[in-house]
Amino acid sequence: MGNLNSFVQQLIKAVKNYKLSKKPSEETKLFIDQSYSSLLSSQAEIGPIVLVINEDKIMHDSDILFEDPKRITSLPLFLYRNGIRSFTFLEGINKKEFSEFVELLARKEYTSNIGLIEDLWGRKFENIIYHAVEKTEGYDSFKIQEIVKDRKRLSAKDLSIFPVATEKGSLTALEDTASAYAPKLKINRKNAQNLLLNSIRDILNFERNPKKRMQILSLFKSSVNKFISSGGISFLLRSKGLLESLMDKEKEQQTRKALYDIYDLLSTKDAEELYLYALTSTEDKTIKKEALSLLVFMGVDIVDDLLNVLEITIDEGLRNAIISLLEGIFSYHKDVLVSQLELASGSTLHVLLSIVESSGDTYFIPHLKPFLRKGENRKAKKVFFRILPREEMIKYIEDPDISIRLLALEEMKEIWGEEEFNIIADRVKSRDFWHYPEEERKVLLDLLATLNVPETIEIFKNTLKKRHLSNPDFYKTKRFAIESLSKIKSKEAFSLISQYKNVKYLKEAVERSLRNYERH
């Protein structure tokens, strides 16, 4: 900070002294030497230096390096009125180039609003990039003017748009211009950030000097770091897109490495914490969506944190988005999902089981099978049967465990083919059927009714004819049979049900079933 202050303060003194003496006096040369030395020291510390020009200030990031409220004789105001919004001093600037820059500023009349940009253009400084706006005649707005140092090289609608942190958030020189002079111009922070990224893209496309390219990338890297620190989710997401585009096309090895180094910043622990913080601490759905898009970048390492977020969020939209992200991650890392299943419990286990169910992947069958014999996790058992191949599921309807038999029957939902019909029919026709648990009898009858064939009606007929001695379970089972039979929409089923309309203990079930027939 001290070197930056000295650089600007001595620069101001050099310009003022030059204007007074009308030539480069010894005192002027001393100020130039001191300013240049401080510039080099600052560059050694932080790389290329971006000075942002305001109406009465010269700033670096949020730091005011010079302020002059006198206005008429103010260097910042002179620069500002001429459209200058920033100067970027690249590493490699020599003393001769710097002295010529000071001389150019000193020779201009401060009350003039014209000529400075043309003079800067004419000098073609190699290591000083300027960013300017231009008042467009006939319009109450400003447009961004592309300042080209060399038509064969580079565009300078560029580096002044790097963020200036303030108490109000991340602002830019471009935003200051828009708010102060063009209230009708729709320039917001997102527009400014897009301009920045577009400028980086254009500069890298046109600039062939390796040293200059590395300096531009250094500024890009610095900006990404700043936005990670200040919470610039939107900028980071757009940076990710730009980096991927540049890496895809760039062939020069040093530049490719620099791009990958910047790209890696997006997956650091600090970046991860920012993305997760954005998910849980803001109501802005756009920011949450952008944070999730960046979390994709973190891959399998983010699984534990996403599951933790799921446990504390009640936002249904966010929950669904996180689950969708987890599904994508687990589709490539099934082993990680298996590990999570072994450790999870409660709502987290429920989410993981839903992801397994959604995948329908038989890979998980051996890992879910232990759930059948332990605990009371019905969800795990249901998912097991839902991804189990049909030919294996049918084997479980004779399992010794009633809960497993029931789940297998429920998940069959309907009879597929002759083999399944025979298995279900045999269980209904057996003597043991009447001693099965009530719920199992009902499920078997419902399954049987899903296949409308003459044999089905015959089995129901025999079930209803079964003799008993005032056994309540028999009454209940026959009522189940009437209700299941009513699901078969056929004349034969209707006729069979009608035969029992005068049987006292079946009368209510028969009347209800017949009404259903009439409605259909």
What are the main properties of this structure?
rod-shaped; about 525 residues; six-stranded antiparallel beta sheet; two-stranded antiparallel sheet; alpha+beta; 26 helices
Question: What is the mean pLDDT?
Answer: 81
The end-to-end distance, rounded to whole angstroms, is 85 Å
How many beta strands in the DSSP annotation? 8
Largest sheet: 6 strands, antiparallel
| Physical arrangement of strands within the biggest beta sheet | 3-2-1-4-5-6
Describe the structure.
There is one protein chain. The longest helix has 21 residues, at 26-46. A hairpin with a 3-residue loop joins β1 (49-53) and β2. Residues 135-188 have low confidence and may be disordered. It is rod-shaped and about 125 Å long. The protein contains 26 helices and eight strands. Among the domains are: 2-187, no CATH class; 412-519, no CATH class. A six-stranded antiparallel sheet has the order 3-2-1-4-5-6, with helices on both faces. It has a two-stranded antiparallel ribbon with strand order 7-8. The chain has helices spanning 2-21, 26-46, 75-81, 95-107, 116-123, 173-181, 189-206, 210-230, 233-249, 253-265, 269-281, 285-295, 303-312, 316-332, 334-343, 346-359, 365-368, 378-387, 390-393, 402-412, 417-429, 438-448, 454-465, 472-485, 491-498, 507-519; strands at residues 49-53, 57-60, 63-67, 84-89, 128-135, 142-144, 164-166, 169-171.
